[in-house]
Structures are given as structure tokens and as C-alpha cells.
Amino acid sequence: MHRFLIKTLTFACAGCLLVLAIAxxxxxxxxxxxxxxxxxxxxxxIFGHSHSECAYDDTLIPKLTNLSHSAESYFYTFQKVKxxxxxxxxxxxxxxxxxxxxxxxxxxxxxWGYTYMSNMFPQYASFMGVSDFKVLxxxxxxxxxxxxxxxxxxxxxxxxxxxxxxxGKTGGYFKIEGTKPLPATNPAGQHIKASPNESTxxxxxxxxxxxxxxxxxxxxxxxxxxxxxxxxxxEYRSNEAEFSLIRQRYFSDIKFLDFNNFxxxxxxxxxxxxxxxxxxxxxxxxxxxxxxxxxxxxPPTHSVKSFENRQLVTFNH
Amino acid sequence: MLFNSFGxxxxxxxxxxxxxxxxxxxxxxxxxLLMAASYFFYACWDWRFLxxxxxxTLLDYFTGLKMYQxxxxxxxxxxxxxxxxxxxxxxxxxxxxxxxxxxxxxVCANIGIHLNPLTLNVILPVGISFYTxxxxxxxxxxxxxxxxxxRNFIDYSLFVSFFPLLVAGPIERATHLLPQVKxxxxxxxxxxxNGLRQILWGLFKKAVIADQCADYANLIFANSAxxxxxxxxxGAIFFAFQIYCDFSGYSDMALGIxxxxxxxxxxxxAFPYFSRDMAEFWRRWHISLSSWFRDYLYIPLGGSKTGxxxxxxxxxxxxxxxxxxxxxxxxxxxxxxxxxxxILPSILLKTNRNHLEIVAKGKALPTAREFMQMVxxxxxxxxxxxxxxxxxxxxxxxxxxxxxxxxxxxxxxxDVSREQLLEVILLIITFIIVExxxxxxxxxxxKLTWLRRRGYRLAFYYTxxxxxxxxxxxxxxxxxxxx
Lengths: 317, 483
Prior knowledge:
The complex is a heterodimer of chains A (317) and B (483). Helices cover 45% and strands 7% of the residues of chain A. Chain A is α/β, with parallel strands linked by helices. Chain A has one domain (42-179, 191-315): SGNH hydrolase (Rossmann fold), CATH 3.40.50.1110. Chain A has a five-stranded parallel β-sheet. Chain A is elongated, with a radius of gyration of 22 Å. Chain B folds into two domains: 6-186, no CATH class; 190-276 and 355-482, no CATH class. In chain B, helix 10 (229-260) packs across helix 15. Chain B is globular, with a radius of gyration of 23 Å. The model of chain B has no long low-confidence stretch (mean pLDDT 91). The interface between A and B is medium-sized, with 23 and 19 residues.
């Protein structure tokens, strides 16, 4: 028995060390050698989830790179922001999509639910700090362990193939053609479909949005929260009161560019939450114009009010 | 608590330490510990069904004793049938009631009678098919006088509920396991190392091959209407490796764990995909179940020592029952029927015992003829697996219909990257090579005679550990837990 224990323990310890080395060494290489480059003359970046991913056609907006990625919670955006800002000193302005569903509890699932974590964690694990690991381990320890293996595999492949380039793999404008059948008339005043549970919000997502803002401020960047257009029937609009409260309580120091009610026809939406290509062209062209008009000028020269107070003759139906 | 979970690892270490260091003085204490650990293990799945397990154990324990004490054959027969009826009754209620109710309603609907059958909203108790068969084999063996009735409840209970085999077998026989339960056990270094090695191989098969193949097989079967014939063939192949590695991986882990406690369980798999005909396949696939049906059903029916039509009847019965044992669905019954049809020619031509030894024994490679025989057998097996995996008979027929189309000769297309697909295919090829090299052993890496130096063998084990670490994704339930 003594012999068995000694041999088994020695074998197990050596195995653990080996596994640790396999997990850490490629991870370290990825963290040191990874490249997150955007075009040299692009000074504005936008981060967010699928709403902004489908809304900003960055080929139509000069000096802007869309780095949004669908189903990305702020937890993973934070890791991305750190790398992009540190490797691209030309960036002066950071836009962060902030819309109704980003306070919803489903953001927790986007952070540590297995499907999302196994997809996003391997991509960004090398850039995370201990506190970030703790968040995942505390909320989903079982699958977090599995995801460490997946991340190690992903890093090992990058290290073996000397492919540390993240450019183009972390998001970008996503073109959607066509539209799902949506109501034909403007349903203003109609009852909204679903009502998210009012007592629950994703505190982790809100905390990480704060972290992103603080990091950007620390890097002396102009930061804006921006809400891209949502269909009037979009279910998450029903948490507007909560959304406004959170924005005022935690992010009142950050300018909020609100294009929630930007006038779009039904055939300019892919679905209630996303613009299709037609809508993206219309909206991106407008944003381009607004940027040229000084919308993103550093404070206090320009004050941005909510979109509904602005007059947009050109886009009226 | 899955064998491939972190929680089970902790459980195993604790039970192992208590078993060999605290309760190692007395056999009864060791058995009591294993029984308690097994009940705890089962309760982790669903504590409510623990009562069912205990009831089933008590039933067979007492009927065994009553049969043994009974003075007349009539009374012995009464106790035997009481046990069989109640055991199969439980299985029927939990596993088959809804199927029979729905099937009856469907038949009645065809003749214009519309029934609204009462269906039970119950979940299937995990392992019920396995421990019911343990109990049945015990009472039948006591009835036949092959074994004495067990007087010690703890020993009998451990035989039924020993945690490595409780939820998915191997289906043990009282004649094989009970003597081991009653014999004093001494720690055997070689056996323990052998056990750990078998656990490692089982884990590799399950966590790496089966779970990787599962992702693709699930994807293809779930969207079978949208894929080309060649992709559907690929899906069936992925499922063939998924189910083999899932179940044989589980069995390897069960056997390995049992070895750590000084037990040797029945072998469940013997490289079935290297079979040269279907008869050989069934001697190598889920051996504990096929031999159970052979001994307790096929032979009592007359086996193959009867006339031609009885042989056909017996073969059909055993395979239909085997299919039905897997689940209350017509897909399993057709799967059983297909296997019966595949095996019948060899039984009728008396060639079913042509291949008793493993293929190419003592040789590096098979002959061209052997290779072709293996390929043909594998194709038959895959064809039958389509019914086993499909959600319904209709889906299975549509799946097969789509395979035999022009697109069979196109390049398979899946919504995953080529690299990912290549990764899995490479893993499967490596796995086949290792299995082939080790086919003369109890399990593929038992001896590793093709790796002569100890250093190479160690490197091989560490490679397995690293691959398991890198490829372990979300824990997937073992397929056979649902049976």
C-alpha cells in the first residue's frame, strides 16, 4: 500500500505540474504576444453586443472601428478594451453600447453560463486578472474548470501555430440581410410583449461596465455610453425605468447618446433588437453626420440630450 | 455524480482511504462501508429512488431465502415468480407504462376508437434496468440451485448496489460477485495500478472521444433534414464512436474502480468494432447483457439446439427483448430486429462461432479478407445505430433515405471549422490505432507491449492526461444511464 501511495502521488503530482505548465505557458505567451490592432487612422472605437454589432457599418463612418461582438457581456468586453486601448494609442474616443437588455439577468448567463463561457473564456482567459477568475469560479465552478481546459487548448494551438493575431476575431460590423415579419404599423402605445423580472438585474455586468469606464478614464480616453435603435416592440424596453435609474445612479458622469427612438421603418430591422443592412446604412450615415457635427467632441463643448428631443427632418417617414 | 466529475473523484478518494486504512481489519466493516457509500452515491442522483432500490434489494433477499427454505418445488416456484413479477412490474411501471399506454391509444385510434390514456409523469429511476437484472439473476440462480441463498443482508445488498456497477452495469451475476463479496480482500499493488490505468483509459474514451463525437452526432441528427448524404454518414459514424466510447469508457472506469477495492467485475466490451461478423460483434458488445439474455432467456427457450424455426424464433425474441430493454421506443425494437436479421444467416448456416478469437491474433495487421469482413460488419452496425439514435422511426427512415441520395458522394459539410472537424477525426484515428495495438488485452492500454521502454509508457500516460485536460468540455451524461 505504501508503495502504491508513493507512486500514485508522485505520478499525480507530476501530472498536475505538467497540466499546469500546459495551461500557463501558452497562456503567458498569448498574453505577451497577442496583437489587437486597428487601422492607424481610426481614433474611435465602439464596443458592445449584437445591437451595436449590427447597427454600425464602420465602412460608412470615418475613423471608427466597430469592435462589438454578439452575446458579449461587459465582463469579456473589459478584457478586450484593455488590450485594444493599450496597443492602439491613437484611440481617443470609446463608445460603449448600453441598452436595456444589458442590465438584465441574462447577462449573467452570457458571463458564466457554460455555452457562453466556453466560447468567450478561451478567447480572453490570458488577459484576465485573478478577480476576474474569481467571478467565474464563484458563480459556476463546475464548468469553469472545464473551460480552463478549453482555454488551454485554444492557447496551445495559438502558441504552436505562432498565431497571436486577434485582429478581426474579436468582433466587427455584422451585416444582416432581410427582416423577420414585424408589425406593419407603428405600435406606439401598444402593450410590450414581455416584462423582465423587475427585482433582478445583472450586477456583475453593471460592475464591469463601471470597470471599463474607469479603465478608459485611466487611459485618458473620451468615453460615451450609446444606445443604438431598438424597435418599439422590443421586449427589454419594458425595463426602461430601471434602466434610467441605473444609468443615473452609476453612470451619471458619462455622457449618454440615446438613439433608442431613432426613426426606422419595420423593414429596416432584422428583428426587434437588431438593425438589418438597410437600417444600418441609414443609421450609420446619420451617426457619421453627427460625429462630423461634433457629437463626440470632448466636454464641455457639446451637450448631448436624448434623441427624442432632437429634430430629424431628413429621417422622418 | 458522474464518474468523470470532480465530485466523484473526491468521493472515490475518501471511500478508498476509509476502506483500506480505517475499516481494513474486518470484512464486514468494509462491506458495510461500501454499501453505505453505494447508497450515498445512488442518493446523489435522486434520493427518492433510494427507497425503490432498497425495496428491490429486500424483495430479492427475502424471496431468495424463502426459496432456499421452501420444501416443495411448488413453493419455490411461487417465490420465484413473485420476485420476477414484482421486479418486472416495477420496471414496467417506471420504464414501459407510458409506451404501452400510448401504443394502445395509437392502435385504437387506427380502428376508430379514441382513447385518452392516463400517462404517468414519472422520471426513470437511474440504473433500474441494471439492478433489476442483478436481482433477477440472483433469484433465478438460487431457484436453479446454482448458488445458495445469501443470509447476510449487507453482503447481498452490496452485491446489488456496489457503486461502480450500480447505474450502468456491468450486469453482474451472483455466482461471480457474491463469492468475492464474502472473501477477505487484501490490497494488491498490481491490481490497483491496473485499476488506475483502466480508469484513465475509460476517462479518455468518455471525456475525449465520446464527448467530442457527441457534439457532432447531436448536431447532425438534430438537423438531419438539412444535411447531405455524406454528412449523414459521418453523423452515423460519429455516433458509433460516441456510443462505444461512452459505454465502454464507463465500463472501463467501473472495472478499474472495482479493482481498487479488490473486486473483479465482468468484462463488458472486447473490441467489438474489430469483429468480422455480427455474431462476433454480439460476443464482444455489452457482454454482460448479451450473456445475461443468453443464459436466462435464450438457453431456457431452447437456444440453438432446436429446429430451424425455433432457432429463428429464439433469436428474434432475444434481440427484440434486448432492444426493448434499452428503452420504451419503437426505434430500439427495430434496432433489435435489425440485429436479429443481421445475425440470423450465420446462426442458420452455423457459422456464428467461426470467429471466437480476436482478429489477427499475434499479427500486426489483418489480412485483406479480415479487413473487408470488419468493414462490412461495421457498416451493418452503423446502419442499425441510426435507429438506435434517431428520435423516432420516421426520422430514422428519413435519415437513411437522405443517405442514399446523390449527395452521398459530395464532400461532407458541417457548420464547424475544418480544423475542429480534423481534430476529432485525428483523435478517432489515433484511438483506433491504440485499440488495435492493444486488442489482445482486457482493455487497450492494459499492457502496452508496443511501447517497450518504461519511459515511453509513462510519456503515453501523461499524454493521455494532457489530452483529457485539453479536450474535456461540458460533462455529458453517459448514454446508458437512461436505460
